[in-house]
């Protein structure tokens, strides 16, 4: 049970990170990206191949993120001066192009050229060996600090909604709904943080490599989330929101709309590239088929579920998605014993599609999204 919780925590952190990059591009800037998986694939392969050449993992990951950002730059220069429909078409094509190129090219693996279809295995993974006892104690302390800071940030987030309710009586009903949403989300996150913290402490003390990877992925997710929250509240972020709503307005104010869009694509791509490195480390062997277009649409589900243009909502969407995924994998075979594995897979996709349809009717802005910032109608 502890190992499975850690696996789910790593998966959720990786795809929350992946989806945060998409949320920056779509939720804040209004850029339609159906090939987000291309950034993850580039980040994963660049990090893995460089680490096999003896380059430190941190440097390899940074270079992987930079390569993914360069892809965003190329896509931006190729499409952003055209109608936004072209961006959607080009990105989904680029996602498949990257996968097919890797599948049909030879890659430098362990001083030999190996066909990409054979995949890449036996590459360095961070914290894969048991560290010294005092290092493990430091990691446990770091996990404790991370859990306390997260719980404190959740409390402040809920308190902000409560203060807003008391200060603005004119919109009392909407403020009450927002407070109720934040309170419910806060409780869910608090329970999950507690479960992950206990599992992590057990696995760090009696060291399991997955626990080290979980700690690292959660730390990176926390740092990226923190910096994104600062960015989207800065003048730069307000320009992105203005572009999303009506790009003619920032143009009239003298803003270089094209360059802001390119920056959003590049930064979102870099974040996805970092997620790709963690994805490669989690699965321990990467193949081109690991980067199917379905993963892009999984990220879209997470963003839409939580609420586009809301970073906390994106993380919530990732939590809901993996909770649903784990629950249906566990219980559906026991309920529908007469269905094959392929039929169960199709049924799971059908149910989450139905959930999205109901959500679009009930709350088209997502669970934590704001209706006045809705971009789905663009």
Structural features:
two-stranded antiparallel sheet; ABC_transp_permease; mainly alpha; 378 residues; two-stranded antiparallel ribbon; transmembrane; 13 helices
Question: Summarize this, please?
Answer:
It holds the Pfam family BPD_transp_2. The protein is mainly alpha-helical and 378 residues long. It has 13 helices and four strands.
Description:
Its main location: membrane. The chain crosses the membrane at residues 6-24, 31-52, 58-78, 85-102, 133-158, 179-198, 210-228, 265-287, 299-324, 345-362. Keywords: Cell membrane, Membrane, Transmembrane, Transmembrane helix. A two-stranded antiparallel ribbon has the order 1-2. A two-stranded antiparallel ribbon has the order 3-4. The chain contains 13 helices and four strands. The protein is mostly helical.
What share of the residues lie within helices?
over 70%
Overall mean pLDDT: 88
Q: How many strand units?
A: 4
> SS-based structural class?
mainly alpha
Unreliable parts: none
The global form is globular
Proportion in β-strands: under 5%
Helix-strand pattern: HHHHEEEHHHHHHEHHH
The strands making up the biggest β-sheet line up spatially as 1-2
Q: Work out the helix count.
A: 13
Alpha-carbon distance between the two ends? 44 Å
Oligomerization status of the protein chains: single chain
Rg for CA atoms: 21 Å
**Biggest pleated-sheet summary:** 2 strands, antiparallel
List the helices and strands and how they pair.
Layout: H1 2-28, H2 37-52, H3 57-79, H4 84-104, E1 106-109, E2 112-115, E3 120-121, H5 133-167, H6 172-205, H7 209-232, H8 235-246, H9 248-252, H10 257-283, E4 285-286, H11 294-306, H12 311-335, H13 341-362
Antiparallel strand pairs: 1-2, 3-4
Helix pairs in contact: 1-6, 1-7, 1-10, 1-11, 1-12, 2-3, 2-4, 2-10, 3-10, 5-6, 5-7, 6-7, 7-10, 8-10, 11-12, 12-13
């Amino acid at each position: 049970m502890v190992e499975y919780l850690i696996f789910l925590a790593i998966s959720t952190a990786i795809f929350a990170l992946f989806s945060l990059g998409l949320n920056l591009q779509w939720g804040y800037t209004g850029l339609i990206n159906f090939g987000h998986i291309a950034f993850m694939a580039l980040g994963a392969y660049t990090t893995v191949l460089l680490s096999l050449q003896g380059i430190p993992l941190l440097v390899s990951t940074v270079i992987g993120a930079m390569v993914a950002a360069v892809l965003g730059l190329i896509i931006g220069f190729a499409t952003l001066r055209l109608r936004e429909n072209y961006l959607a078409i080009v990105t989904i094509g680029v996602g498949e192009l990257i996968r097919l190129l890797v599948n049909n090219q030879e890659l430098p693996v362990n001083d030999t050229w190996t066909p990409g279809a054979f995949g890449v295995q036996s590459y360095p993974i961070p914290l894969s060996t048991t560290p010294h006892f005092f290092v493990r104690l430091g990691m446990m302390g770091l996990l404790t600090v991370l859990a306390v800071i997260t719980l404190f940030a959740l409390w402040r987030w809920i308190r902000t909604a409560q203060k807003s309710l008391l200060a603005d009586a004119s919109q009392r009903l909407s403020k009450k709904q927002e407070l109720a949403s934040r309170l419910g989300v806060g409780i869910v996150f608090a329970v999950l943080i507690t479960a992950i913290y206990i599992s992590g402490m057990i696995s760090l003390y009696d060291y399991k490599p997955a626990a080290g990877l979980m700690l690292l992925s959660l730390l990176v997710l926390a740092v990226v989330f923190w910096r994104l929250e600062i960015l989207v509240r800065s003048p730069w972020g307000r320009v992105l929101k203005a572009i999303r709503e009506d790009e003619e307005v920032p143009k009239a104010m003298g803003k270089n709309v094209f360059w802001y869009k390119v920056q959003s694509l590049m930064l979102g791509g870099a974040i996805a590239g970092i997620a790709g490195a963690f994805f490669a480390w989690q699965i321990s062997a990467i193949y081109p088929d690991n980067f199917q277009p379905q993963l892009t649409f999984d990220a879209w589900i997470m963003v839409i579920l939580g609420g586009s243009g809301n970073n906390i909502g994106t993380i919530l969407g990732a939590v809901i998605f993996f909770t649903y995924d784990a629950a249906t994998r566990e219980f559906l075979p026991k309920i529908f014993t007469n269905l094959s594995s392929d039929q169960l897979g199709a049924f799971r996709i059908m149910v989450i599609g139905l959930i999205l349809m109901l959500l679009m009717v009930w709350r088209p802005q997502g669970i934590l999204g704001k209706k006045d910032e809705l971009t789905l109608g663009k």
